[in-house]
Fold this protein.
Amino acid sequence: SQQGEEDPQALSIQEGENATMNCSYKTSINNLQWYRQNSGRGLVHLILIRSNEREKHSGRLRVTLDTSKKSSSLLITASRAADTASYFCATDMRFGAGTRLTVKP
Amino acid sequence: DAGVTQSPTHLIKTRGQQVTLRCSPKSGHDTVSWYQQALGQGPQFIFQYYEEEERQRGNFPDRFSGHQFPNYSSELNVNALLLGDSALYLCASSLGGNEKLFFGSGTQLSVL
């Protein structure tokens, strides 16, 4: 069973633009994580935000968490063609269906 | 420092057969989790092993079983294969439970 659900399912932007992906979940959490997957292979951990944190940054990534709304967002600033991938949120070992991001050069 | 390694990378089986997939965790990690990912879908949690015991299990039938060895490596066994078992099987290791997961590149299983 899936815990998180990403929105939108797919997103297409131009290089240099910002990309925002959202995640909603159903039950209380200890932390929420975001992962990236290129070409259907292994996932790569991007960032972990704990339930008592509201915002976290890592390079061009910014993650927010709103536990009252059971939602999180991932912002990628100044996107690059290499950011083209699927992005997943995960809570309690469960992943959503992901957002497919395409960054056009 | 070797990351998570999975074998084989690709596998073709026929319906009704049994399959064993293998995973070696990242050095220093003691927990192994297995996922099934169908094309275009997110990874579905199968189960997690810690200290050679199944600690958590997702919504998968008993045809899916696993094992963890004293060196923390793990196997996923699937019996009586169905066409719907065709998927990418991912192994992830971690230190402890629900913290940062390190994934292998997966085993692509095709059931004909």
User: Anything to note?
Assistant: Chain B is about 0% helix and 50% strand. Chain B touches chain A at residues 4, 33, 35, 37, 39, 41-45, 48, 56, 58-59, 88, 90, 92, 98-106 (CB under 8 Å).
